[in-house]
Amino acid sequence: MAGENETGNVMEIASVAEAIEWQAQHMERAGSPNNARILRALLAVMETQTATGRRIANWQGLTLEDAMPLRVAGGFHYLLLTGEEERLGDIYRGFITDQAQIDALVVEIAERHDHTLLPWLDGPPQTNEAGRSASVMAALLWLSGKLGPQFELTEIGASAGVNTMMGRFFYDLGGTKAGPSLSSITIKPDWRGDAPPQNAVEIVGIKGCDISPIDLADEAQAIRLKSYIWPDATDRLARMDAAIAMVERAAPDLVKMDAGDFVEERLAAPQDDGVTRALFHTVMWQYMPQITRDRITEAMEAAAAKATADKPLAWIRLETNRKTFKHELSVKYWPGGGEEWQLLAEAHPHGAWVEWLGEG
């Protein structure tokens, strides 16, 4: 069953039912057991005559590669956030834990709201989690000791641009501090292993792109983004509310653009001496077409060949290892550190904890 795929490529699980169970188990391990019960109820929804159930049962593609269970999970959370289905609150808060009872309730809700749930299957989830910036900042602290303290950052797959605002957050990473201490958003994950080095980091510029950016100043778009947050993750919901308030004060520098075009444009722009140009992305690489990934890789390799000590280049990624499903922070930098990806940390998918593997 699902557990047998831990050592293989879980993204290639062919059975829809097995993929749903695997995703539910992963959700439990990540601290969201109540949402996992909703996912398991999709097995019952598959047996209904709803359009949502039929589409789930006959999913065209690889279920986990497409993040199909998380698409539907977002739809159910949306029903709660908009007040259309208050009954879901009893499941999300853990008041109802019997799976048979949950199955019956979720089936009833799916039949009642079929027209609302079905469109959630049309595209991958857009998660924008400020907690993931802990890993990015840790990488910058590490890179500062190699390349210098000043960075010009480029984020792809920025969604609503929450992490494009990472320079405004305060960080406590195992005792290593960074960012403005009076920030309304404090990023303080459970830190495991050595703390990252206490080097200076100055973000002199940061800009993000997304193929379908979300405007957090728009209430409807903000609710949709919040819907993809796992409902029992109350700390994440609180951070998103703080990010929404931050956007109201000053929006992130975010553009609607293809990631390949954006990276090429950013790399072609003039670069100041002493400033490291760094590309970063968090849990989005798998959702891009292979042709776009190849194009970005080629553009970075071409820029790397021209990097100098005065005009360094770095690539920071917090992405899913497609064989182990662990979320890994890895870095390349030029000149001097670009032959192989250097694994610096493993992290919780939403930043609740970070295990530092690099030098302190």
Q: Strand-residue fraction?
A: 15-25%
Question: Which value, in Å, is the CA radius of gyration?
Answer: 21 Å
Mean pLDDT, all residues: 93
- Principal-axis shape equals globular
* SSE string, helices as H and strands as E: HHHHHHHHEEEEEEHHEHEHEEEE
Which strand order spans the largest sheet, edge to edge or round the barrel?
Answer: 5-12-11-10-9-8-1-6-7
Mind explaining what this structure looks like?
The protein has helices spanning 16-29, 33-45, 51-57, 68-81, 88-92, 99-112, 114-117, 133-147, 219-227, 234-249, 259-268, 290-304, and strands spanning 150-155, 170-173, 176-178, 186-187, 190-192, 202-210, 254-256, 276-282, 313-320, 327-334, 337-347, 353-356. The two termini are 40 Å apart. It contains twelve helices and twelve strands. The protein has 360 residues and is of the alpha/beta class. The chain is globular. A nine-stranded mixed beta sheet has the order 5-12-11-10-9-8-1-6-7, sandwiched between helices. A three-stranded mixed beta sheet has the order 3-2-4, covered by helices on one side. α1 runs antiparallel to α2, α2 packs across α4 and α2 packs across α6.
